Each structure stands twice: as C-alpha cells, then as structure tokens.
Amino acid sequence: MKSKAYSFFIFHFSLLLVACGGLSIPTVYTQMDQLPTIYPDYVQVMVPVNIAPLSFEYDGQADEMIARYSVDGEEIVCNGQPPVGKWHSLTQKAKGNAITVEVYTRNGDRWARFKPFSIFVSPDSIDSYVSYRLIAPSFITYEALTINQRCLENYDERVIYDNMLCGFEKNGQCINCHHYQQYNPQRLQFHARQFQGGTLIAYDGKIKKVNMRNDSILSAGVYPAWHPWLNLIVYATDKTFQLFHTVNPNKVEVYDEESDIIVYDVETDEVTNIENSKTEFEVFPTWAPDGKMLYYCSAYFEQRDSSMTKGGEVKSRYKELKYNIYRKAFNPDTRQFGPRELVFDAAARDSSATFPRISPDGRYLLFTMGHYGYFHIWHHDADLWLMDLASGVVHPFTEVNSPDTESYHSWSSNGRWIIFSSRRGDGNFTRPFIAHVTEDGQASKPFELPSRNPDYHRQFMRCYNIPEFMQGPVTIKPQRFARVLKGEAVDVKYVSGGL
Amino acid sequence: MKNAIIWIFALVAIACGLLVFESHYLWKVQELNLFLQTPLFFKQQMVAPAGMLAYIGAWFTQFFYYPWVGVTMLCGWWLLLLFLMKKTFAISTRWAPLLLIPVALLLITNVDLGYWVYILKLRGHFFLTTIGTTAVVALLWVFRSLPDKNWLRAVWMVLTCIVGYPLMGIYGLAATLLMGLWSWRLIPRGRAAVYSAIAIVTMAAVPLLCYHYVYYETNLANIYYAGLPLFFVTERYAQYYIPYILLALFMAVMVCLPIEFEKSKSQNDKKLKNKSKRWISWAEQAVVVAVVTWGVVHFWYKDENFHHEVKMQHLIDQTDWKGVLQEAVAQKDEPTRAIVMMRNLALSRLGRQGDVMYQYRNGSKRYNAPFDMRLMMVVGTLVYYQYGMLNYCNRLCTEMGVEFGWRAEHYRYMTRCALLNGEKEVARKYINILKHTLFFDDWAAKAESLLDNPRLIAKDHELEPITHMLHYSDVASGDQGYVERFLMNQLAKNSYSKDPVFQEQSLLASLWVKDSKLFWHHFSIYVSQHPKDDIPVAYQEAAYLFGKMENRPNLDQMPFSQGVKDRFNRFYQIISQCEGMNIADVRKRMERLYSNSFYFDYELMSKLPEY
To answer: Are residues B63 and B130 in the same domain?
Structure first.
C-alpha cells in the first residue's frame, strides 16, 4: 500500500522527467525477430499527412520502452509519445513515403530491439475535425452525455454540448444525432430528448429549437440527412423499443415497431412524409453527394397473428427484420421525390443492411451488414460492406473489418478516408478507427484515433457514437446551445403532398 | 492542553462509535467510492466546480477499506479542524467544547445518510464536507492574520473566491462570505462595507463566469451549490441539509461575535480561577458535550434492516455464508427483500435452502428511506451476479455507473461477469483500471491470473458457485426494475436440468412463483436426480399442497413425512376458520406456528409489496 501511494506521488514527476529528459537509443541490445506488440496497433498503418502524433505503449512486460520514429535522417526518440510539432515535421518529410519506427524495450538492465515497422504517410490529408457523441455502453440511463469535437491534427478535444447543462435528476436530457450539412461546422443539428427537448439547428450563426413532433408524423425526427446544398433535412421517425438479453453476448436489442421517413424545411419549418408504408420500416436516410438521390434502409414486416398487438408481434419476431437499401430520385428544382428503387437486397442473403453512406465522388456505398435488425452497433457480427455503385459489385470491406462490431462510418470530405466505430478492442466500448480508401475502393489497415496518452482508450469508460468529419471546429459555445434549449421551440407545420 | 484532552477524548469516543456500530457501513461507503491513481481520473473530477475537493475526498474515502484507517484519518481531520478553529476564532479554553458542535454536525452529515449512501452522486462526500470546512477555517485564519493595509485582506478575499470556487465550490463561496462578514469585526466600518460589497459581488460573479467560460457540465441552476451532496430524487429532501445549514450558521456566529467576547472570555477565565468556581466551567462544558452527544445519537441512522443489509453484503463479499445466516438469525424486525434474498443465497450456498428457508423470518418491509428505495439499488448487482444472470448484472452496473458514477464494486462485478462470460478483453480493461486503485490491485492481479484459465475459474471459491448458475436460456425482455420477480420467473421457466445446483434453484423459483405446473416439472427432475436423499421439507410441503389442490391420485401413497401431512391438515383447518378476515390478521394469527411452512408462504405471503 505504501509503495503504491509513493509511486502515485512520483507519477507526475517521472512523467515530467521523461517528457523533458533526453532519451537515447541503447547501444547494446538483443535483436528480436518479431514486430513489437503495441497498443494502439499502429504497425504498418497508413495515416494522413496532417494526423496527430501516433503515440503508443508497449503491450508486453517491460520496465521501459523507447521508440525511434525516423525518416531520411530526421528522427524523434521518445517513450512512444512524440511531440506534436516534431511529428508534423516528420510526416511532412515522409509524405507519400513511410516513417520507420523502431521499438526498444528494457527488462532489468537488458534491452531488446524489435523488428522495425512502418507508418505510411499518405499525401491525402484528412478533415481537421471529427465530432462524436460520448456515451457509456449503458442501456437506459444517460447522465453526462456529451457531443464532442476533436482536432485530428493534435489532441485538442472540446465539448460541443453536454446534456448536464439542461438536465437535472428526474428531468434528464438525452442528446443524439449530431449532423452537419456537407461537413460544415457552421451548419449543424442535434436532438435533445425529454426535458427541454427539441431539435437544435444552427445555421450560419443562428440557432433555433424546433419541436419536430406533430400528430401527422410518428415521432420527432431521428437519423438526420441534410441535403448537400438545400435547406432540407430528411429524418426517420420511429417508435423505438429496447430489449435486454439474459444470455446473448449482444446484450441489447433496439428495434422499431413502426418507422417512416419525413423531410423538413429548415426555412419554413414545414414537414411532410416521404415514406410511410404500414408494412415497411424505413430508417437511416442519407443523401448522395450530388443531392439528386436519397438512400435509405427499409425492412418489410407484415403482421401474421391478429391475436397479438403489432408491437407484441414485432417484439416476438424482431430477428425477422431484415433491412434492404433503397433509393429515391430527387429533383432539387421541384423538390419532388421519385418512386423507390432497390439498391441492395440484403434480405435475399438472410442479412440486414443499414447505415448507408455514399462516398463524396458518388461511386461507393458503404454500409453495415449484420444478421438482422438495424441497431448493429450492439451486434458483434456487424461488419462494413462496400458496394461499387457503378458496377453493382458488393463485398465485405475485409481490410477494415474485425471479428467484432463495425458500424457508424462516415467518409471524409475528399473521400480518401473513412472513420468508423469498432468494438474490436474489447467487445464493449466502441473506438473510432480511420482507414485510407483509394479511388478504386481499396482500404489500408485502419488505425485507432490517436490519443496523447496511449492508454487513454483503455481507461476511458465511454463509447464513441457516430464519428462525423467536419472541416473545422464548431464555434458555438455549449452554454449558448443550452440557452436556446431552455427557450421556446418552433413547432413544425405538417403539409401533405410535398414541400 | 485541557482542550486537547477533551477533544481527543471526544474523537476517540466518535471513532469507537463508528468502528463498533458502523464498520460494515464504512466498508460499504468505500465500495461505493472510487479513486483511481490516473491523470484521467483527476481530469474527470476537475470538470465541475469543487472537483478538487471531490478528488481529495475520494482519495481519503478509499481508506475505509480498512475502517480503522479511514476513521483515524477522519478523526485526524477533525482534530486539525478543532485546532484551526480555536486558533482562528481565538476561542477561550472555557468555550472550547463549543467547537465540538461543528465536528458533531460533520459527523451527522455522514451517519444520518442511511440509504442515501447508495445514490449520492457527490464523490468523496464522506470526507468532502470535513475537508471543505477545514479549508474554509484555514482561509479565514489567513484572512485574519494578514495585516490590515494595502487592501491585502480584500485581495485575499477575492483570491479565495476566484481560486476557491473552482477547487472547492460552495466552500470557496462560504469562505468569501465569512470574510465579508468578519471584516465588520476586523476593520473599520467604512471599509468593512466595501469588503462586504466585494464579497457579495465576487460570490455572485465568479460562479457565473465559471459557468460561461470554464465548465460545461453544471446546470446554471446548480452553480452556487457545487460541492454539496444532492438530496434529490423526485423531490428535494431539505431536512438533510440542516447539518450543513447549522454548520454555516455556527461559522457565521463565530465571525460575527463582538470582539469583546474574546476579552471577556479570558477575563471570565481569570475570574473563574480566582473564585475557584471551576466547577461551573466544567458544568457548562459538560452541558455542551451532553447536548452534542444527544444530537449525534438522535440523528444517527439506526435502522436495523439497513445495518443487516450492509453487514450481509460485506460477509457475502468475503464468501462467509455462515456469517450471513448468523446475521439472519439476529433479525428482529420484518426483513426487507434484500435481506431475504441474501439469506436465501447463503442457504443455497450451504445446501440448506429447501430444508430451512421458511424457518427464517420472511417479509417485505419498505426500505427505511424518505424516497422510493428499491432492492435493485441495494443489492441488485449482487443478486444478479450470485444468481448467474451476468448480462443483467453487467447492465445494472453500467446503468448505476452512469447514473451515480463508477464505483469500485461495479468494476469488480463487471470483471467477474466478463471472466465468467469469457469476455477476456473487456475483463482485462476492468482489471487494468482496478490496478490503479490502492486496495483492489491484489484482487485485480488475482483476477488477471484467471483470464486465460477456465480451469482456475472452476476451482475459484468465489467464482465456482456461479459457474453452476450459467444455464439460463436467452430471453430478450426487461426486468422493469423488479430484480427478484424477474430472476425467479426466469429461473422457474428454465428447462436446463443437467446441473443439480441450477435445477434446484429452478425448483425453488417455482415455489416463489407459486406455479404448480412449473413445480411438478422441476420437482420430478429433482426427485430423479436425488434418489437416495431425503426430500427437503419445503418441497414435500409444496408437493403435498399442489397434489391436494389438484386432487392427484395416489397422493397418500407418496412418501411424505407424517409431519408434512399433519401440518397441512392443521394449517388448513385454521385457515378455514379465518374466512373473511383481513390477510394481515390471519398472518399474525398463524405466524407463530406456521410461518416456517410452505403452506403459510403460499397462502399468506403472496402479494407482498415489491420495493
């Protein structure tokens, strides 16, 4: 106990020493044949030229670790946490090439040198910011939820909004569905549920709170998709329920008893249904980057047992819900939608496809595939799949998948990077991973979002939901969002027959 | 010196009281606490005002793992507070026992909590108030000691607010306010008014500025209360703030007393000496001590069930099942369901549940809390874990971790669940987190040794019993917060019978749900699995009762003990005489002779309130 307390007191001091002191590469060591086991796994990954330093820790038994990052005579020698400035100088030099990383570990007075590995530096840059919701892997409770933004070029992380600014005990507030128009941090929206709830829409400095509930639609909007240039946001509306498994490692099921798709006009506050079939559960709308096609998912469900309520029957047959991907043509001039077309028939493969996202060049459709249902983030079998929209060829995105869950993906604005959430680390906590995607749809090995403290994600007890790229930071302060949320909401007006 | 003796005597008495009456409670307090020696944990505490106090409070609270260590530290803080108060307020020896009042109030803030301890969100609250109060007095002492020139005291007052509020929340504000008040005694009135105005403005402005520019996790409505525990569930329970208000009033009186009082005190001391009337002084002090003692004893939370519950939890943590039963025997009041469930668990672990479970007092007493306390909050995680419902244990840990903050016991339960579920990587995550604690690192190291070793898990005295309970079929539903009902229904409806331990629990659950169809199913398997054993009396009684109800043929040819039949006949003879009577009255009438039977449980103990 005493030694533990002592070690704690010297913890910061030793950190300081390491940070300030000059580390030197050992001259006497045993050369190992294998690559080092490090966390996060950055061995042979490809990174954007402007990414924050890839700090890592040795994942085996060692008293000390020294890493040398080098390219063409320029090097950083550190304990696995390179300084931001020097790192960027190194990545600039290695642009289109690779940084070589040598790892040395010490046990007692003996040093070992592992086989060096490369970090490939792509000349393709990445959007400078990403935002995500941080939530514990809880099922019902949601105290202390935040939507955060993180600068990908360094480690700065700030809160966009925290639900504790409005929520208080029984008057709790849930927040979700942050979304941007074309990566623009000045045009964002997110939902607050329950206490002082509403949809917050920020548009070029103005913020308004919208009450999206209306008798003519199922619920307030969820899963937003902002048109690339028009002031229209398409949402799903749904009646969502949760079930908890007693044994199944998936632990939670989230399913809809009904769902539709609506479109909302940000300027007029008018809303109308686009899809509201009683036998189809439509969800996850997303726009093609040209703004002329709306993609979404839908599952066919017909009631068979008239002795049960629809809700009861959906609950008992939730594993039969298989979502396909559809699309509807959209005319931006007339604002009219065309009939739906099947894009990917997942049900025919006894599977369920969700969360469609189109690459900025319009060529690829990236989606999540699982065995059933639509809330794949809780399904360990969920993987990312890629469809070439030009050829119609579909295949699992093997290069980025893991044996565990992958979902919540998004494309960077230049289309060369994807970010997605994965539970590959421990099966429970989603972490953001980034992978490079070439023009012909080949992906590099994904790498985990770097943190200043490489152990951070192992200690952190929240999940990353919906990582979304942004071209800069959201500059509106959380308190300003709170002030708007505490105020009155604008009610939507339902119009039939299109906006 | 005399003061010190009185104080030390009082603190020793308090320490003894805490250790004798509340050692299990103190253990539970640290189980519900968490302190991690990581920069991330520190950072996470600092996102709200009073974060530093919470951080320090949590550090000290972990020492209740050994209650005597924690109590010694707490008493050490109080001794420091006593000395600081005496020095700061220049209290004369004669009136020094008055200083026991704030200590008593601080003690009450810890021992009047009862079930609040399960749901308080303020980390480190057991030490936080004490440390906050001590810091306030120390800041006042500096304020008083500063020379009265160049507005030094004003600068100190403003600094106290600017630095004190982020670090200590309301305690920083309180110190500022007290300085503003004290200035009327310490400096000329003209400037005192300015001091007071500065105090009020900074007190109002600093939290607002912090809200707008520093913190993002505190609701505007709560910024002035940061650092106070929140006694709010669906409404505010203001009575729990009384000790805090009295504490603030005491401090206010101390700084508002006319300066002459100190002189008169010393003059009084001399006078008393001269007149040899020390006994008056002693009497006065004795009255103060008596009143303080009465107050502490009166407000000390003494609920029997609460104390049985925390002790049983502690004993279960030590896998001392016999100890749990000894505690159950000591039960005088009607037990809560938490107690009944823990007792039944102990009986099942000792293989005696079917024989003797009805010999212990049954009931469903409401938890003695001003709010709607539920079994789920008291022992939900423990019960789910011990009954092998690991997904639900994990779920409840997570829900409570989110709602009330992560606690040491959550991490340990989640580790156990992950180990038993074979979720190695997430188990490793929790183990690594626990390695950053002061007292659970050994536990974590042991858990780590089980990570890749199912054989060791099967031999582990703590985990092995749970391995027998991992045979539920998967059901996707929800417990609606009713842990016992959900668990018993899941068990009763289960069909797995290869593990006799699980099978017997299913049989017992069928008694709980009082479903004859399920009972016969499980009973027939039980009998076939125990051909040479005596059938426990509870099962015989259930078989006889259900058999009679269903007019089963050849019932009398089955090997029931004569006692089972006789009791059935006598019981239903009396019951038939009670027709039309209130069930509570019938229960009372039959309790003495028949409460130890399934007949009593079946007829009179159904429809118990569920908390």
So the answer is: yes
From the number of C-beta atoms within 10 Å of its C-beta (0-12, 13-18, 19+), residue A25 rates as: middle
Distance of CA B405 to the CA centre of its chain: 14
Instruction: Answer yes or no: do A245 and B438 touch at CB < 8 A.
Output: no
Q: Is residue B341 part of a domain?
A: yes
Task: Say how far apart CA A168 and CA B223 lie, in whole Å.
Answer: 12
**Do A12 and B421 make contact, defined as CB atoms within 8 angstroms?**
no
Q: Give the domain A26-122 fold.
A: Immunoglobulin-like (2.60.40)
Q: Give the torsion through C-alpha atoms of A206, A212, A214, A217, to 10 deg.
A: 130
Asked whether residue A443 carries a pLDDT value surpassing 90, the answer given is yes
CB-CB under 8 Å, A247 with B473? yes
Cβ within 8 Å, pair A456-B38:
no
C-alpha distances out from residue A161 to A410, A432, A480, Å: 21, 19, 9
Contact flag B216-A478 (C-beta cutoff 8 Å):
yes
- B219, B429, B473: residue with CB nearest A458: B429
Q: What is d(CA B437, CA B575) in angstroms, rounded to the nearest whole number?
A: 57
Query: Same domain, yes or no, for B343 and B294?
Result: no
pLDDT tens digits, residue range B461-503? Answer: 999 999 999 999 999 999 999 999 999 999 999 999 999 999 9
CA distances from A183 to A37, A47, A470, B106 (A): 36, 20, 4, 54
Q: Do B37 and A4 touch (CB under 8 A)?
A: yes
- pLDDT for res A14: 40
Closest Cβ opposite residue A170 in set B221, B222, B234: B234
The count of structural domains within chain B is 3
Query: DSSP letter string over B509-569?
Result: HHHHHT-HHHHHHHHHHHHHH-TTSPPPHHHHHHHHHHHHHTT-TTGGGS---HHHHHHHH
The correct answer on CATH 3.90.180.10 for the domain covering A129-490 is no
Interchain pair A141, B402: CB under 8 A: yes
- For residues B316 and B282, membership in a common domain is answered with no
What is the token pair recorded at A267?
């300027």
Residues of B in contact with A242 (CB under 8 A): 478
Per-residue pLDDT tens over the stretch B394-404? 999 999 999 99
Q: Closest Cα of chain A to B577: distance in Å? A: 44
The answer to whether the predicted template modeling score (pTM) of the entire model surpasses 0.80 is: yes
Q: Tell me which of A2 and B368 has the higher pLDDT.
A: B368
Answer whether A129's CB lies under 8 Å from A151's CB. yes
**Among candidates B161, B204, B197, which has minimal Cα distance to B180?**
B197
Q: Is A311 on the interface with B (CB under 8 A)?
A: no
Helix or strand run (H / E) with residue B413: helix B408-421
Domain limit, last residue, from B252, B273, B299: B299
In chain A, which residue's Cα lies nearest the Cα of B39?
A: A12
Our CA angle for A218, A224, A228, nearest 5°, is 135
- Closest chain B C-alpha to A488 CA, distance in angstroms: 18
Phi/psi of residue A406, nearest 5 degrees: -130, 135
Q: Is A171 on the interface with B (CB under 8 A)?
A: no
Q: DSSP state, A22?
A: P
Supply the pLDDT for residue B554: 81
Instruction: Write the CB contacts of B166 (distance below 8 Å, at least 6 apart in sequence).
Output: B49, B51, B52, B172, B210, B214
Residue with tokens 């606490």: B33
Distance from CA of A151 to the nearest CA of B (A): 19
Cβ of A248 within 8 Å of Cβ of B425? The answer is no
Tokens of B321: 């099942």
What is the domain extent for residue B95? Answer: 2-299
Question: Among candidates B248, B300, B298, B362, which has minimal Cα distance to B590?
Answer: B362
Chain B residues inside the 8 Å CB shell of A140 = 399
A18 touches chain B (CB under 8 A): no
**CA A257 vs CA A238, A262, A277, A287, B173: distances in Å:** 7, 17, 13, 25, 52
Interface residue A44 vs chain B (CB under 8 A): no
